[in-house]
């Protein structure tokens, strides 16, 4: 790598972010931490602003550093794609970064990766599972699997599935606390809820064709449907989660569905989200097409 050029400086900066330290980036590049520090300082002097705040324990990014990191990732990804296209005449190859929610990724996306990799051996799949929303335009991922209605954005989305919602509890919890018969009975129970901002604060129901919502409460919140389902299975309370995430536990009796007569039947769409257009990398198109193919099949 030519660390004397701007692209080299950008790669150093992204590696510092990836490893969380100058020493981690230095090991990855076979350099010394002092060399990495000089490169960062040179970049800051050229730009005219501080990008990193360094202490003996950790590094943090300034607002300008975060902006530089997003731009650097995007530029490096574009450069890699141009080189890949020229080298392989547009055939699917290179690194594909895929972001998926923890439970859905583990249960639905991971089982597909082996078949996709066998079909496209020149693509290196970099799979990241977590419930945080990654910045695709900022270069944090090439494809993200997202649930629910999507906000307006420059990104392209393709529908790859949908899931309903189900209220569940363990037989042990119900034996100790009783089984809710009507939606309002939930006020007497410990309801396990999502803690992230986009989650609806209420649980919806339908009675005699009329839909309404209840503001439930509980002592535990989590950022993952898989976490809430696990807590429900352990008898911690009642959860409302995606049906796909608890299908096996319902089948074997570890969890019991509740209040199904009042289920409003709300369905959450699942999309693959990416940067589209004529310059879309062949590896991204191949992966999205593969997901759609498996969904339709």
From TrEMBL:
Residues 10-62 form the HTH lysR-type domain. This is DNA-binding transcriptional regulator, LysR family. Keywords: DNA-binding, Transcription, Transcription regulation. InterPro entries: LysR-type_TF_proteobact-type, LysR_HTH_N, LysR_subst-bd, WH-like_DNA-bd_sf, WH_DNA-bd_sf. One of its GO terms (biological process) is DNA-templated transcription. One of its GO terms (molecular function) is sequence-specific DNA binding. Belongs to the LysR transcriptional regulatory family.
């Amino acid at each position: 790598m030519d660390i004397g050029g701007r692209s080299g400086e950008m790669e150093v900066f992204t590696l510092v972010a990836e490893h969380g330290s100058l020493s981690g980036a230095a090991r990855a590049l076979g350099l010394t931490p002092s060399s990495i520090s000089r490169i960062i300082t040179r970049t800051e002097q050229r730009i005219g602003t501080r990008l990193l705040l360094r202490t003996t324990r950790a590094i943090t990014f300034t607002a300008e550093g975060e902006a530089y990191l997003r731009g650097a990732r995007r530029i490096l990804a574009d450069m890699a794609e141009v080189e890949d296209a020229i080298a392989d005449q547009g055939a699917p190859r290179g690194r594909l970064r895929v972001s998926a929610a923890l439970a859905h990724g583990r249960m639905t996306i991971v089982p597909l990766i082996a078949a996709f990799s066998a079909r496209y051996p020149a693509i290196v799949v970099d799979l990241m599972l977590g419930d945080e929303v990654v910045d695709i335009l900022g270069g944090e991922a090439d494809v993200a699997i997202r649930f629910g209605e999507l906000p307006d954005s420059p990104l392209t989305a393709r529908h790859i599935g949908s899931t309903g919602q189900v209220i569940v509890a363990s037989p042990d919890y119900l034996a100790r606390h009783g089984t809710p018969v009507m939606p309002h009975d939930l006020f007497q129970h410990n309801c396990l809820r999502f803690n992230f901002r986009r989650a609806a604060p209420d649980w919806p129901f339908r009675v005699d064709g009329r839909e309404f919502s209840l503001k439930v409460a509980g002592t535990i919140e989590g950022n993952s449907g898989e976490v809430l389902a696990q807590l429900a299975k352990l008898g911690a309370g009642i959860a409302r989660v995606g049906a796909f995430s608890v299908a096996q536990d319902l089948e074997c009796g570890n969890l019991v569905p509740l209040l199904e007569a009042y289920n409003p039947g709300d369905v959450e769409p699942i999309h693959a989200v990416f940067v589209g257009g004529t310059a879309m990398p062949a590896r991204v198109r191949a992966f999205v097409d593969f997901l759609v193919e498996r969904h339709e099949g």
